[in-house]
Design goal:
Helices cover about 75% and strands about 0% of the residues. By secondary structure, it is mainly alpha-helical.
Length: about 140
């Protein structure tokens, strides 16, 4: 995902007077800019950083939805809307089956050790941003049995 696409979509939402969508995209852009400043690449933001920030924001909003009390339906609706908008920009993640095939092909020698910690240490840098950490953990756990 390119940050320029986010900016263009935010401008389009502003022109359409779609305030909730504009605010969701704006918060996403702010999070990406903050991550870029923290990493020291203010001007040229790599696409990988944009994608990882989007996934992080998606996870945060999902937690907000899950922890929101049922009595506050208005907040839950707002969080759900933000989640839907952010998920439009999120990169597609690998499924559990795809992760399993990838790990078995690339890391067959490490899997043979049945050492879950060693496998995770080797696999996580390769799949960071391509698959959910929980899915990877679950797949590796199954392979270690």
């Amino acid at each position: 995902m390119d940050i320029e696409l986010l900016r263009k979509d935010m401008v389009a939402a502003m022109k359409a007077k779609d305030k909730p969508r504009k605010e969701a995209i704006s918060s996403l852009i702010s999070a990406v800019k903050k991550a870029a400043i923290d990493a020291g690449c203010r001007e040229d933001i790599p696409e990988e950083m944009v994608n990882s920030t989007i996934l992080k924001e998606l996870k945060t909003v999902k937690e907000q939805i899950d922890t929101c009390p049922d009595s506050r339906q208005d907040l839950k609706d707002e969080y759900t809307f933000r989640y839907n908008v952010i998920s439009e920009y999120a990169p597609s993640l690998m499924s559990a089956e795809e992760v399993k095939v990838y790990v078995q092909e690339k890391f067959a020698d490490v899997i043979a050790s049945k050492n879950k910690g060693q496998i995770m240490k080797t696999v996580m840098p390769e799949l960071k941003g391509k698959a959910d950490g929980k899915v990877i953990n679950q797949v590796v756990g199954e392979l270690c049995k």
